[in-house]
């Protein structure tokens, strides 16, 4: 994965460009020391001068009103600009100033609309942080400090603000009695911060040349290598899976865990501001030499079984079958913004349409139009596709038919850890109360209800939930959901139970993933991987250890993650970005596949092979436990167990059971 950078040969601004902002995925506004507001169109390549401000107008920060009104109300198309004279200005897209407010003594260093558009905040050289109404009326002065505040930002629900104070970061809660959180983050003055709505992680950049990632409690997640120059700008991608940092003649793209994807060294001077487009595929940067730098991501790779997929251009995807060495190139009419590969399909979303390709026939895709060109995520399951965009959540069949449109407030803020798609259900972590998990039945889109109690609509955990995953096999009445809470404890619960019970499987789990074909659940610890071959066995504590396989792993690094589980082999992304494959539970995976398919003779053969490999004790216990959950076919598996025990026992009961 890397950037493809483009810019005009000659700078359109005279002097430094201090700030940029995206109006949509095609138009960018920029403002600089030449007092001009420019509008760039990335499709036509045009650059228009919107207006020229007075000579004493020196902008520092620019922020466009959040796109929360899907009706396209022009009243919301306004721009907030903070200036060096301590004022902030609210203006429309034509450059006409509607409101000017003298906010600070000295420069107004930061200004931002709240995510819900109800107000705005400013931070100044005088050390004050203030909250204003949408129309520019002062509501409160929340911070009074004796040092300049170089950056301040709202959290995702506007309930708290993060601001800088010298070399420290401070989180101030606005509407509660929660204690203010403050910690020393850098050795030098902190110049820039970013707080992602999806992963709730904080990114900071400082004069000491380091960028660091923190959680909301001030715990350090990762730290970058030391750069030669101060970090002047940082920005999270909307999905929270990547971030970018800017410095003098430097722009670096990094994974959310901190390791670097690519490093570019354009001759631009210091990069004062970096902003992602809403679809997370391109960015704009304000540069000290008068240029506005544009970059989009290419060579992003996806893999599923023997297929690999690489986006080689804005509108081009390359597909390869590594077994037959067959290559195909797919060209699209519009810019590609999201790709998903799995379950024998390739799903590609452009700014206007979604294309569904079968792996056996690339050239005849199923297409459907998108509600809006801002897609944040595509999820695949065995029988359906989930498309998450700012306009809402939509679930489609692989034939392009709309199955359901579950309701969710601000779906664009959902991260991958907060949503999971199964073959017949969609699970979401409630963004207003993260202890609650909502599970929607498909294709109706109604909340899953217990088969015996129609009042059960939500799953409520005792702790805040950080990650969820739905099982991918089995009937709907046996659908399970695994969850990780903020204590890193792993629980599993059956969605359709009349009285759902959260059963703990393990602790200190960093990442979880279900097998795509069976009920095998894999969890990752700091130095080991754990496979639960039959998670439902956890309801009987003495059985849990018998169906658990653990393998020690070294050199995983910090914050490793599980990518997939296939045929008992787990694909793991190490802390440095490299991938490794670990064989955990190939025997239980094969056995589970045969059980699900009612292929008992094959299950018997797998069992006999296990005996030959000296897996007798473990295998018999696993088979016996799986058999106890096999419903009407329980006796057949019990007979399988008795066959293995037949040579070691004279019990007539086991002999009779075997004959059945």
TrEMBL record:
Q: Which residues form the IFT80 second beta-propeller domain?
A: 299-584
Read off the SUPFAM superfamilies from this record.
Answer: WD40 repeat-like
One BP annotation, GO? cilium assembly
Offer one Pfam family short name for this entry. Beta-prop_IFT80_2nd
Could you list this entry's UniProt keywords, alphabetically sorted. WD repeat
What is any one of the record's Gene Ontology cellular component terms?
cilium
Q: Which residues cross the membrane?
A: none
Which parts are the WD repeats? 101-133, 183-215
The answer to whether UniProt assigns keyword Hydrolase to this entry is: no
Supply the name of the protein: (African queen) hypothetical protein
Query: What is the organism of origin for this protein?
Result: Danaus chrysippus (African queen)
């Amino acid at each position: 994965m890397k950037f493809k950078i483009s810019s005009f040969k000659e700078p359109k601004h005279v002097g430094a460009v201090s700030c940029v902002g995206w109006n949509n995925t095609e138009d960018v506004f920029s403002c600089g020391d030449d007092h001009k507001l420019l509008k760039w169109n990335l499709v036509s390549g045009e650059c228009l001068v919107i207006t020229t401000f007075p000579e004493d107008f020196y902008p520092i920060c620019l922020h466009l009103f959040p796109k929360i009104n899907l009706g396209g109300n022009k009243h919301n198309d306004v721009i907030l600009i903070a200036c060096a004279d301590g004022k902030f200005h609210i203006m429309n897209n034509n450059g006409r100033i509607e409101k000017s407010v003298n906010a600070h003594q000295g420069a107004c260093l930061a200004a931002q609309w709240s995510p819900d558009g109800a107000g705005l905040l400013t931070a100044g050289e005088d050390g004050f942080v203030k909250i204003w109404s949408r129309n520019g009326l002062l509501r409160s002065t929340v911070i009074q400090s004796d040092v300049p505040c170089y950056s301040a930002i709202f959290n995702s629900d506007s309930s708290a603000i993060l601001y800088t104070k010298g070399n420290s970061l401070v989180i101030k809660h606005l509407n509660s009695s929660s204690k203010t959180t403050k910690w020393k983050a850098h050795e030098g003055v902190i110049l820039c911060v970013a707080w992602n709505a999806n992963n709730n992680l904080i990114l900071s950049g400082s004069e000491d040349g380091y960028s660091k990632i923190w959680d909301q409690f001030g715990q350090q997640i990762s730290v970058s290598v030391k750069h030669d120059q101060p970090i002047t700008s940082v920005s999270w991608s909307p999905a929270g899976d990547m971030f970018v940092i800017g410095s003098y003649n430097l722009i670096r793209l990094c994974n959310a865990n901190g390791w670097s994807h690519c490093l570019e060294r354009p001759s631009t001077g210091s990069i004062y501001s970096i902003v992602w487009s809403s679809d997370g595929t391109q960015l704009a940067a304000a540069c000290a030499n008068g240029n506005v730098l544009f970059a989009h991501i290419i060579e992003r790779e996806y893999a599923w079984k023997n297929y690999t997929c690489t986006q080689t251009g804005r509108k081009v995807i390359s597909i390869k079958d590594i077994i037959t060495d067959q290559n195909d190139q797919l060209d699209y009419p519009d810019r590609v913004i999201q790709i998903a590969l799995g379950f024998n399909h390739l799903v590609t979303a452009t700014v206007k349409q979604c294309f569904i390709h079968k792996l056996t026939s690339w050239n005849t895709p199923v297409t459907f139009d998108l509600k809006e060109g801002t897609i944040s995520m595509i999820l695949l399951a065995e029988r359906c596709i989930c498309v998450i965009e700012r306009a809402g959540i939509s679930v489609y069949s692989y034939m392009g038919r709309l199955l359901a449109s579950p309701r969710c407030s601000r779906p664009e803020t959902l991260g991958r850890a907060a949503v999971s798609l199964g073959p017949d259900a969609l699970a979401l972590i409630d963004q207003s109360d993260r202890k609650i998990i909502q599970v929607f039945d498909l294709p109706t889109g109604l909340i899953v209800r217990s088969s015996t109690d129609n009042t059960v609509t939500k799953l409520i955990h005792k702790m805040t939930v950080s990650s969820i995953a739905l099982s991918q096999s089995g009937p709907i009445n046996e659908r399970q959901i695994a969850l990780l809470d903020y204590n890193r404890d792993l629980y599993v619960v059956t969605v359709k139970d009349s009285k759902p019970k959260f059963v703990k499987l393990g602790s200190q789990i960093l990442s979880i993933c279900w097998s795509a074909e069976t009920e095998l659940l894999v969890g990752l610890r700091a130095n080991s991987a754990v496979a639960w071959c039959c998670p439902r066995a956890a309801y009987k504590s003495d059985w849990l250890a018998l169906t658990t396989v653990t393998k020690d792993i070294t050199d995983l690094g910090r914050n490793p993650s599980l990518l997939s589980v296939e045929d008992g082999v787990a694909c793991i992304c190490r802390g440095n970005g490299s991938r490794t494959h670990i064989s955990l539970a190939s025997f239980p995976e094969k056995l589970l596949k045969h059980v699900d398919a009612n292929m008992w003779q094959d299950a018997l053969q797998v069992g006999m092979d296990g005996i030959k490999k000296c897996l007798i004790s473990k295998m018999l216990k696993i088979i016996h436990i799986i058999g106890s959950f096999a419903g009407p076919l329980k006796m057949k598996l019990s007979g399988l167990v008795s066959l293995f025990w037949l040579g070691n026992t004279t019990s007539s009961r086991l002999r009779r059971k075997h004959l059945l």
